[in-house]
Records
---
Amino acid sequence: MLNRTDLLVVTLAGVSLAGISGCKHADETAKAARSSVTNPLKVQVDAELLRQIMVGNPQVQEVTTQEKVAARVETDASRVARIGSPVDGRITQVVVYEGQRVKQGQVLAMLHSNALSDTQFAFLKAFTQERLAQQSAERARQLVQSDVIGTAELQKREAEVLQTDAEVAALRAQLRGLGMSDHAIQQLETTKKLNSDYPIIASISGTVIERKVTVGQVLQPADLAFQIADLSSLWFVADVPEEQARSLYLGKNVTATIPAVADKTVSGKLTFVSPVVNPQTRTVQARMILPNPEGLFKPEMLASMIFESRPERALTIPSTAVVREDNKDHVFVQTSESDFILREVELGDEVSDRRVVQKGLIPSETIVLDGAFHLNNKRRQDQIKGAE
């Protein structure tokens, strides 16, 4: 049996163990309670910090955003000439090559054409017959006046004059169509000398951007010999996605940048907006004129075109309200007078120091408009203390 002393020791030991166990259980309960109410996105502020921030509501306002689309530099189609030969023949000489500047009327190449000489021969034959018919009709008029022949013979000879006149006129037009000038045709009438060498002439002044002929090559009327472009004025052309194209219109102010020319920026107005959507790319073509007096820009350079969208009503917040966290945009939403919670939102473009809200907020909610940086620092400090 235990004596009184032993019984007292056992009793005290039991009480001590029960106390230790009870304290440990109380600590665990308190810690679990704290973890159940702690939210890393929530923050509670005191009166001093509350005075350093500004709260308010998002605003609905008209915004105009900037749209940026890929573009390119192209030759002005109204300043490009495709040059060939109206007669078939063989190239005997090439005078100019790619990259050379030429003037309107300058000879680009020489062509030997049997078809040209054949037409010249037919013209001279008709021209000679016309002169003979005119002389014959004149003699008939004199003979009629002398009663040597009748008027029927005169009418016959005058009809021959009309026929030869028509043949000469037709062949003269044919020679013009083959590229002979009126002066060259007059020389042919005077000298009666056939010339089968045909000059291929520049129809506009500009730069030779393509040459398709070489010496000895046979050229047909449908073939391209040279392509000349006036590069003093070019086009910026952009294929705008159809969902962005609704804000495009003739005369709209746009800017364009060309990375190859030290990010050169050019401003202008749209001179063309396609009335149809390209069914393959689902884009609408738009273009502006690009002055190029110094030849700084070249066709096929890559560029970007920037234009403003149509004004739309949208929900916006100040840029100072945005908190970047884990590469995402957030704002602090007020849940009570001193409580805030960090909420992820989807934001659009920045317009005049404000951001367009696409998702995550409604106009009636109260958020931190300014001082979000201080509030986020307080939230992070609370996280660190809670983890200790």
Note: The first strand starts at residue 42 and ends at 44.
---
Amino acid sequence: MQVNEHSAYIKARDLSRTIWNICSLWDKTSLNTIGNQLIRAADSISANLAEGWSRYSKKDRINFYIIARGSASETADWIEKAYERNLINGFKYQQLQALLNELPKEINGLIKGTRQYLKH
């Protein structure tokens, strides 16, 4: 299996793409304050999953998966701020929450699987 076939990576990429499409419509001030941070945090999830996937050692893989999980939490925080500041409507907020809800669990599954099945 390749990283782009794993459900956590697929969901992270879907989230990233959706956030990009939303933020690309924002005014310059909103994009420069919240939008860029939100995009970077969301992009970091799949990027760290991909980098961790290709690492040789168990410790390196787990480290990148933990960073990806942290980026998911950061993304959730930026989504909350965007919603509170009326940059996203209730429908988009719920759509983003649905994409984000399963990611930490799936990333935890990658961490657990790596701990159990990778020898070194």
Note: The chain has a mean pLDDT of 94.
---
Amino acid sequence: MKKLYNSLIKILNQAIKLALTFLCLGIVVQLLIDDDLLGWDPISNIQSAGPSFIGVISLVVLFLLFNKK
């Protein structure tokens, strides 16, 4: 049972890392081309998170998670 749990945690960690990589890549590419990516607008989604610094905080968290080894 412990082996199954460890393998499941490993798979989930890899999936989250892959999703964060695509999200960060999408943000960088959208900043470079200044247009939506195939109908996906990650920067607008982060900006519409709230009128306060939620968007900035989410970008910082994404950056920290992306650089986490």
Note: The chain has a mean pLDDT of 77.
